[in-house]
Amino acid sequence: MTEAIWSQTGARYRAISESNAVGFISGTSGDYASGRDNIPLVYSIYTPRGPVNAWEIPENQINRIADEIFAGIVALANYVAGLPLPGHES
Are 57 and 48 a contacting pair, CB within 8 Å? Predict the structure, then answer.
């Protein structure tokens, strides 16, 4: 995802564990999806920090960030589409 974002938009994102992104936590939606429903690939995407408050992105940056993240989501979807279906491995 990060390489697709960089190659299409020039923006640098990085891939890190969720605990490194927000501190040691448990009980996230990723934990729930992975543990309860045995979903093998769980991702959380965090937007770049806002200039004053990490969670408040200026309105004039929203479209740019959405375009950047969408490039990563398309790359992720293409990756997942190429995986074998569970129970159908060759």
Answer: yes
Count of other CB atoms within 10 angstroms of residue 84: 8
Q: Count Cβ neighbours within 10 Å for each residue of 5-24 and write b for 16 or more, e otherwise.
A: beeebebebeeeebeeeeee
Domains of the chain: which residue ranges?
Answer: 2-81
CA 51 → CA 11, 21, 34, 58, 62, distances in Å?
17, 17, 33, 8, 13
For 29-80, how does the pLDDT look when each residue is reduced to its tens digit (9 = 90+)?
Answer: 777 777 777 777 777 787 888 787 777 888 999 999 999 999 999 999 999 9
In this structure, are residues 18 and 28 in contact, taking their beta carbons and an 8 Å threshold? yes
User: Tokens 């934990």 identify what position?
Assistant: 31
Q: What is the pLDDT of residues 12-32, one digit of tens each?
A: 988 876 655 555 556 677 777
55 CB contacts (<8 Å, ≥6 apart)? none
